[in-house]
Amino acid sequence: MKTHNYSILTLSTVLFLCLGCQSNSELENADYNRKLILQYHEIWNTGQVEKLNEILAPDFVCHYLTDQEWKGIAGSKTEIVNWRALFPDWHEEVVDIIIEKDKVVTRYNSTGTHSGTYEGIDSTGTKVMIAEISIYRIKDGKLAEQWCLMDDSALKTQILNYKEQQKNLFTTPKTDK
Asked: Domains (ranges, CATH) in the chain?
C-alpha cells in the first residue's frame, strides 16, 4: 500500500512540475508577445522606424481590409513614414489586447491631425479619431504578419465634414432683396 501511495505521489509531483513549467513558458511567451506588439504601436506613435529592424521578421507582411498590402521591413518603414507625413502627430492608444499562442489582437483608437493630401483630399488641419483592430502573428520572436482593420470611412467622413464646415463658414448666404 505504501508503494502505491509513493507512486501516486511521485506521478502527481511530476505532472505538477511538467504542467507548471509549461504554464510559466506560456506566460513568458504571452508577456514577450505583449511587449513586442506594444513596441510596434510605439513605433507608429513616435515614427522611430529604425526600431523596426529589432521587432519585424524580414518577410513581414501587413494586410489591410482593403487590398492594400506591404512587405518587409523596408516596406513597413516607408508606410509609417508616409502615414506620419499625412498625420504627423499620429498616436495609437491600445484599449484591449488579447494573446493566444502565436497570435495577438489589439483594439486601439488612433488620432492625428490631417496635414497632407489623403485620398485626394488636401490638408485640412482637422484632428481625427478612428477605431482600429489588428491581428498579429509572431514567429521566432518577431512580428511576421499583421491584418489591420481600419475604419477608413470614418476617417474620410471626418476630413470631408471638416472641409464642408470650413467651406460653409466662409461663404456668405445670398439674400433676396
From this structure: 2-169 (3.10.450.50)
